[in-house]
Structure to design on (1552 residues):
């Protein structure tokens, strides 16, 4: 009998992790963007790659788009293309960090014209959402300042709130606004939404369909991220995750690669707080595959989330609670760690096979010939990256 | 003519910084508490020392008490003692970190008896406030956990909210509850109020007289503290400062000693946000003088705050705003730094003398003979420290 | 057949982890030292507790002593006591952080008298080593400064070198000097041996029997510790480990508790660099059990090291090297993580049983009645802590 | 009479800070490289801009080149161009981070061909040095790995040593090799030269003309950089500084902008250790002016170094040493801070004027019309950046 109970299997079966279209394009650092053969040239090819991840894992039913990187003439056609490949179009991500006008700010800019332009970009993103059927508008703001004294941080907060309100009011139906926060980069002194508190304080003034996005790589060193997960779930404001991992700054490495135990703790709090398979809490990746193969990198990532979810579900909750209530520190820790150290991989492989999926998705992809095919076919054109 | 305008002088004249009674007692690290001659043996002697700081600086009109360290039979007598020496009794600080019952929590403890005991301690602190005429009850919670899995962080938040509500409801008149946050220590995995967001989310549910206390040493490495100052002022929830400085963790060094420019930036945001000489925003020190002389350490500290306030007030605001609006990064920075680099010390010395205060408070204290007097008189008894 | 090959079993069989006598005494933070029933009152009782850890794990053949905390009239008697219980006396740790004379330094002090006193203390420690048969003198220096400008860091380095040389020259036979480094605490601005580079530069001038001690909790946030392990092994200067774990500062938590994957990576480099079961590289714990049970805390700790060593030994090295040579990032990572995620616990339990040890040492200890016995017997007297 | 004594003036007169040619080109983050009007198109224009910084400050007598970004057909012509404008060509910086071959390493690469190619690039840089008359070859290595297990860190150290030796042996006369270290970026798990200890251990094996380069932005959070300055000077291995400042990672902001007091402390240790105006210790900038004006950014930077050097020279050393020897913590700190808080700017302005330099270099540049001229003239072509 599997170590994965029917209940656990049921919960795992409900799990879906959204892939970022940009993970299939080239990325890098300020020093260099390395290229790889077979990289997509347009959004249609990105979605084809994403669908391949879903095909071998059953874990990635939707793809997030980034506007304007993924702008196409006919979003309806893109949507049908995705559906034909078995995936949906997901969250729409806006971009206010690459237009010369936004050098000193976008939604916070002092100049009404530029701020309005930035707001209008978001309204355009909502138009895209209407066409793609996407629910979420995700806003990550690159704005801030590099030097103390450069700008008036306080006035920017007020302008930000005003801009967000205008955008929020344009949403219809079950559409949501999800506001990401980030500690630093590309701004080096202050960012306008640096921490969960700021994102929370901003979205709390907007309404029920404004939520916080937690990117696991966007915190100061040593921050207890699972505490924030717990708190946002408690406050009813955790809208989505951007999963990745990091050793230093916003490294955007494969989720679970840098600190697997941290991912475990995060998922424990997600489960504890009712965030698993809760439609209000979207799971997404936001990663860069600078030097590793991109499609396998995404496969590895969703598997990491799945495996760690399984481990977190394995916790013997009654035993844990008993030990916690008894203040039995080592006893509680033992229950907790027992789940983490359990090797769920064989059981997951078996379970995948039972559902008609490859037991080893990495091997299945390698054996599929897809990589060779795209390397052969995608010759010429401009490889997609952060500029297109 | 002084570089300090009449307006600046007026603002400086209104400044008062509360001293912590415990700064006059011995303190140290887990490795060693060093002793010094002349250390007070009781609250009356601590207040006498604090009054000496005020005598030579005119900057320290009140003294915060810590319960039970400063518990006396007759708080009315202590209040008269303080008033006779020209100072007031200020904020009352509770202590839930030294009783065996609190090993695993106090206001968050799962055991109703212990949680009630911790709440009752705070009610007793409010009784003390009634007797001393203090306005603020400051709560810093040492509770948390050392190991992942040890405890249920989510349930603790809910219990914390319940405990705080009971305490808050006992307040009368203009009394306030001020909730401090701290990143880590003495708990090493999670603390129950780790960041400003948690403190804000908690006090926001209580009412208008529940505020956040910002201790400048309680943040993750690299945190932009002045941004938090700005945000809390914007949200109307900055109740008080615990000033100190740090290089690494909660070092509790003299304010302004580790990063003077950070203190400048904090005070700039205080002024920008209307927090200077605003009765809603209390200025306090929370420091340890582990190896340096205590009374001079406190004198140096309040002078550091005063000098940096003067520098922050010197900013040519119209010029700064013009440069900011023009996105003239270097121009704005130049205006900002010009104030920081201006040597305000001679003008402050002159201004102090004009108000009947020593121009050089450190020298005045050294010449006063007070230190020699207390070293001679305070022989025998037990020196005050963190345990008494 | 066990997943642990005969070769792996052989390597595991050779593993020994030295326990710190002080882990059995009370410890805490500057805020509070909690007490526990059954805590030893003297070095004999500490050694009895340490022997109990060894009895149930077979992993802890020696006990490090701390002078003066473990000073006894007759070290020969203490040695026989240990041997009777099946353990040896190990590393001698000096202490220059609790005498009033050392408030501003010991081996670096400007005052010749105090510096000489600190050197003499180390010579006395070597006398103890002669009596106990210990090989290593471990020096951790608490000295440094709290404020910029307080002291002349450069002159202190030179005096430190001079002091260390005098101590080193007193060593005989195979005795060694091992110099620990620490980033901060109890000093808050500078420490005299803050990083591996300084420790290395100092011991390199002394001779072959002067080595570096790497305490896993003594680094700046984000430091790649396994890189240092690799480098010190490469330079032939890794003398010993102080194992523990941390989330923030020098938390001294149970090894492997905060970041199990980091412990794995460290042990991988130990094996790669020839440091496993290499007599030149001592494995020790240096932990505090502030709130958890002490003897089980030590049992858990040595088991964590053993389990993680087993995982590290499981790496398919030829496959790893092949993937590395092919720059197959994900392939190499897969081999690496496969070992980490393998559950070695059942095989280790079986292997322990095959060697006449309890398969579950934690359960064996709990069932032994030892804890109840010491709680009943150790009544009265003063519990051991960091002062005694 | 000036607060700057004749001796201080003499020391200031000897100060020269090398400018990086690349500071005049465009730079940015992975998110965006903003452009500015008037940006140079080739090395000749970069040097013209650098010479302008020297013209108004008298502080920037040389310009560092980056190969291949500054590769020209005739380095003799470039040298004459520089000399005609009153500046010299300085340090030659190699680049092994932008060629596809170097994706997985250069001087450490396992593939002999690639490693040899990287070595050859450095030999070519030495050829350039011969042509430009440069003394220093500065090596910053971007290499490392992004994932644990990806590579064999130990073998890379050995290959690095081998590569460096080959390069070192090609140096002639007074030419030097200076090895920079960096904590992270662009590699996100390990870098091959992460810390001063590694750089020191590597260059120590090469010979007297191999030194360490300390970039002030390349350390883990909280690192005491001035301690490293002290230690490298003590060991005779501090070859050069790359000055800049940072709040978070390698932000490459204007030196002194993020933490002026840290720059002060660094310069105090430079002076203490005999590093000021010591030809063995080169002062350079390594900065990015992502959003601020570039030439004024460089002027501001060299002025910051000059002003802070003046402050550091103002320390009353006998008084400081007396207070230090007496362990008068607050007294020593007072002497130290007195120098920091002294406003040296008026005296420096006067002194500059006395030497025929503009008293206000920023204003002089603004008034010179140079910026308008280059914006008008430099139309068309490709603006220089990190790629050219």
């Amino acid at each position: 009998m599997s170590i994965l109970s029917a209940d656990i299997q049921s919960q795992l079966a409900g799990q879906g992790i959204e892939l970022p279209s940009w993970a299939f394009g080239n990325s890098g650092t300020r020093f260099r963007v390395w290229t790889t053969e077979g990289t997509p040239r347009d959004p249609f090819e990105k979605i084809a790659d994403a669908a391949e991840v879903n095909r071998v894992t059953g874990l990635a039913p939707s793809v997030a788009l980034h506007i304007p990187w993924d702008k196409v003439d006919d979003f309806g056609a893109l949507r049908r293309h995705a559906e034909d490949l078995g995936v949906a179009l997901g969250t729409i991500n806006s971009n206010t960090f690459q237009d010369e006008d936004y050098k000193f700010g976008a939604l916070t800019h002092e100049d009404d014209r530029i701020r309005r332009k930035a707001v209008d970009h978001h309204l355009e993103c909502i138009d895209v959402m209407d066409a793609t059927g996407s629910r979420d508008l995700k806003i990550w703001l690159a704005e801030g300042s590099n030097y103390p004294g450069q700008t008036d941080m306080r006035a920017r907060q007020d302008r930000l709130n005003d801009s967000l309100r205008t955008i929020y009011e344009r949403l219809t139906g079950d559409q949501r606004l999800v506001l990401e926060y980030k500690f630093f980069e590309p701004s080096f002194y202050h960012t306008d939404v640096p921490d969960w508190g700021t994102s929370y304080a901003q979205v709390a003034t907007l309404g029920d369909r404004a939520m916080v996005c937690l990117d696991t790589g966007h915190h100061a060193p040593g921050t207890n991220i699972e505490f924030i997960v717990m708190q946002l779930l408690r406050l009813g404001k955790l809208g989505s995750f951007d999963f990745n991992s990091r050793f230093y700054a916003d490294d955007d490495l494969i989720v679970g690669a840098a600190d697997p135990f941290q991912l475990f703790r995060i998922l424990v709090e997600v489960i504890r707080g009712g965030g698993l398979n809760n439609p209000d809490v979207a799971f997404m990746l936001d990663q860069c595959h600078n030097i590793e193969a991109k499609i396998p990198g995404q496969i590895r990532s969703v598997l990491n989330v799945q495996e760690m979810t399984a481990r977190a579900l394995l916790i013997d909750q009654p035993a844990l609670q008993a030990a916690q209530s008894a203040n039995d520190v080592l006893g509680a820790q033992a229950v907790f760690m027992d789940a983490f150290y359990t090797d769920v991989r064989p059981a997951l492989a078996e379970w995948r096979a039972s559902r008609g999926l490859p037991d080893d998705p990495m091997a299945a992809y390698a054996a599929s010939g897809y990589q060779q095919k795209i390397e052969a076919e995608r010759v010429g054109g401009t490889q997609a990256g952060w500029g297109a």
Notes: The beta strands of chain C are 19-20, 62-66, 88-93, 136-139, 144-145, 176-180, 190-191, 210-215, 238-243, 282-285.
